[in-house]
Write a structure and sequence with these properties.
The chain is α+β, with helices and mostly antiparallel strands. It is 52% helix and 17% strand. Strands 2-3-8-5-7-6 form a 6-stranded mixed barrel.
Amino acid sequence: MIHLYIFEHLQNAYLSLRATRLRTLLTTLGVAIGVASITTILALSGGVTKVVLSQVNALGGNMTVVRPGVVSRNLDNFANPTIEQTYTTSTITEQDIATIQSIPHVASVAPLMILSNTLHSNVDNKHVPSTVVATTPDLAVTSELPIQSGQFLDPTLNRDSAVIGSQLSINLFGTAQSIGQTFTLRNQTFTVIGVLKYINNPINYNAVDFDNAAIISLESGKAFHQGIAQIQQIDIRADSTAALPGVMKSISNALTKNHQGEKDFTVLSGKDISQPTSRFFLAITSVMTVIAAIALFVGGIGIMNIMLVGVAERTREIGLRKSVGASSGNIAWQFLTEALILSLVGGVIGYLGGYFIAFAVSTMLPFNPIITWQIAAISLSMAVGVGVIFGLYPAIRAARKDPIESLRQYH
């Protein structure tokens, strides 16, 4: 019996919506736009996190990083994707680096002091804005940076040596073969001793686009800050994946002791390493989701509007159905079914359209959207929710109509 009622409601809803095709199409489109926006945002933001996580996993699962400050969940500082890594005064010191290096099962340690500067080519006086990373030779090991020509930083080399990204080499010197060329940074001359291979991963756990970056020694970086190291991150690799949990615990305990019992740093591994990047996109996602939710809300109002118009236009039909035995529940379910069909069809169209937009946008980005059942569930659930919420009042209003008054009014 229940199956017969469901089939009857679906059939009646189809016939009713078909009779007002244009109105139905416009209402469905309103829901589709909202769902498409949400789907696009979730697919792209998920793709960012997946990119960073895959990079961390590719390193062998034995990577951990230390960052200054305690990770918070507020969205106050999301205007800049690297703001959490560019403190005016970092809580991480050189003593912390030495402490981490002395911990058992630590294979390599690389501090990152990140600067934003303009490099001046000494060849043809070009000026190129760039990210400058002051670090140690271990960065090549911890981040597995591939060398195209020359070599990486070495403690035995001159302090004013530099390794640059392949794209920066082209932008600065007009060629990817720039070994021996010099550039000026804050009135200090550096000689290029190595050029990195083209990596093409501007989104990564170091928040550095190495294709467009210059890498100098930590001592050179300190010279730009009155001899003080402003360390935004320490990359650490354990000697095995099994040793990583113990290494992380030892690092946390040792640094807490260094900082007089105050845990003003964060030790991260696995998917948590992608937090600064993914939190930045989480902020964008949150803002855009609010905008998408407004569009979905407007679509819901459209559903309520068309249903209320339908109730008014079909008052005589409601009276006739009640007079021949239809219950108020049957009437309510009939109208609620129509609202659900409108929202669900809009949700499916919006979900597919959202992925079409996401993949179109991704052609201009260095990552692809992620496809998961969770996104489908969220998108379609929101569509169904809109149908229920905004279709419930018209359904109740239709169910409460008095059959005698309905027939008399439209006699």
